[in-house]
Amino acid sequence: MNQLNGLLPVGLLPVSQSVFFFVERKQRIHGPSEMVVQFYTAPPSSGAQKSKCWDEVQLQILETRTEEMNGQRDCLPALSQVRCLSLGSYRCTDAVNPENQVSEQKERNEEVGQYTELVRDFLNPKDFYNALCSHGMDYFCGVPDSLLKDFCAYVTSVTPKSRHVITANEGQAIALAAGYHMATGRAGVVYLQNSGLGNIVNPLMSLAVPSVYSIPMLLLVGWRGEPGKRDEPQHMIQGQATPGILASCGIAFQVLPDYQEGAEQALYVARKHMETSKGPYCLLVRRQNFLPFKLEKEPEMFPLNRDGALKSVIDSLKDRDVVVGTTGMLSRELFEHRVARGQGHEKDFLTVGSMGHASAIALGIAQFRPKRQIFCLDGDGAVLMHMGALATIGQSEVPNFKHILINNGCHDSVGGQPTSGLSDSFDFLTIAQACGYKTVMRATQPEEISEAVTHMRSLEGPVLLEIRTNKGGRKDLGRPTRTPIQNKKDFMHFLAIDH
Ligand SMILES: Cc1ncc(C[n+]2csc(CCOP(=O)(O)OP(=O)(O)O)c2C)c(N)n1
Asked: How remote is the CA of residue 473 from the centroid of ligand 1, in Å?
């Protein structure tokens, strides 16, 4: 860490005699005295730049040599005397295009030849689906996950609606599979991300386990944050805890192999276990276990996608307005939009996990910061996941609570599987109104959004603005470079300004 102290030229950060870090982005935080620097872990000409491996350090500026840079928020002074406050533990790699990864891996498999232990395969979603069906498991329910997206997409595209239900939350999927078992005597497949384990613990322990109602079901759990893999901070914690959570719930599990024979063996073990224990069994699914499978592209119905709508909202807010962003791509887009506008991140709380809870976080803030306008930027999947929050908010009579729901009718952040959000027989506005929201409105066009945001600032809350959008977003979206703790600290400073 000490090697980073000293004079810091723009572009190249000498870390030791042999290693140079290339400064990729710079960002000032907390006024003039601290900054965060992201850098490649190798010179830009090497492979590291290609895969965008970077890390982050937090530096304190002790002395700045270039006067004209003073006061500019996102500018790293050309030459600064710096002290390293912390080396980032948060690393990130650009999303690898799964199709490239498959072809690259095939080449590597050929290179390792006879060393079968070095071969890395991918499961074909179709073959795995057929194997499940051949074991009598052909009823599917759950909440989509990024690691399961190819499998979920296959299930969505080939399974009739009567045998596949995308549930509002993961606990509901356990209950649904329990009902299915009691009606048919068969075991359903419940899929979820490990972030949703918390949502299933109650119905799992009080309904499904052998010592209560004893309901066999196969849990297919996407293992985000698996130890040894890079991931976002919240996933690292959850990933580490995942085997322990399953074990303490008494759920037998194994990792799903990445090749068909192994997967079929795992399914055989799962079926035998469910037959003998008469309880759930779990398969943990690692990153990129499946070959890519994409849902068919749908026609675009609206002028904007989530990113476009978000930009219109943010650009219509005032300086002191507070934003709580929901889980997934929305908060990542919000972070990048602030960077693009040369703004800091202190106005935004990025709810990196806790899907469905952004609105309750915003409500808690609104209650105790009555002079500020609190905007919750939500997603349809997230609102559906904990829709009871609408009742809590509607009955709260908190006038400065402003809810903006970007409804793209799908779980876009994890593969775009549909929600009920844009279904003809479903209406968020009617629900919110019936829950006690004082005003509800809808917008789709950029000008309508700006007008609606300005208007809702003057209205007494709780107010809901639903913005209907197309699905899809940018493929090269980055991830927040501020840690959750840094985000909270900046945000609390911003909230402390009470006028
Ligand atoms: C409890 C829990 N379940 C599942 C996930 C995985 N997940 C992250 S974002 C997301 C989809 C969110 O959908 P929506 O709110 O509609 O926003 P969109 O991605 O469409 O913008 C899901 C399922 C999670 N983070 N937490």
From this structure: 14
Q: What is the per-residue pLDDT across 327-378, written as a single tens digit (0 to 9) for each?
A: 999 999 999 999 999 999 999 999 999 999 999 999 999 999 999 999 999 9
Distance 250 CA to ligand 1 centre (A): 27
Of 169, 234, 327, 474, best ligand 1 pocket probe by most atoms within 8 Å of the beta carbon: 327
Q: What's the CA angle centered on 222, arms 110 and 421, to 5 degrees?
A: 125
- Residue-wise pLDDT tens digits, 433-456: 999 999 999 999 999 999 999 999
3-state SS of 453-475? HHHHHHCCCCEEEEEECECCCCC
Predicted confidence at residue 3, as pLDDT, reads 38
Q: Residue 116 above 90 pLDDT? A: no
pLDDT tens-digit series, residues 312-323: 999 999 999 999
pLDDT at 106: 76
* Domain ranges within the chain, ordered by starting residue: 125-285, 306-496
State residue 98's pLDDT score. Answer: 57
What CATH number is given for 306-496 in this structure?
A: 3.40.50.970
Question: Of 150, 353, 348, 139, which is closest to residue 233 (Cα–Cα)?
Answer: 353
Q: Is the pLDDT of residue 6 over 70?
A: no
Q: Please state, rounded to an integer, the average pLDDT across all residues of the chain.
A: 84
Token pair, residue 263, equals 């997967």
Domain 125-285, classified CATH 3.40.50.970, yes or no:
yes
Q: Give dist(CA 253, CA 97) in Å, integer.
A: 29
- Do residues 461 and 401 lie in contact, with contact meaning Cβ atoms separated by under 8 Å? yes
Q: Which atom of ligand 1 is nearest to the CA of 306?
A: 21
Are both 125-285 and 306-496 of the same fold?
Answer: yes
Protein residue with its CA nearest to atom 1 in ligand 1: 196
Residue nearest to atom 8 of ligand 1 (CA): 328
**What is the 147 CA–ligand 1 centroid distance (Å)?**
12
For residue 471, the CA-to-ligand 1 centroid distance in Å is 13
Q: What is the sign of the dihedral through the CA atoms of 442, 447, 449 and 453? A: negative
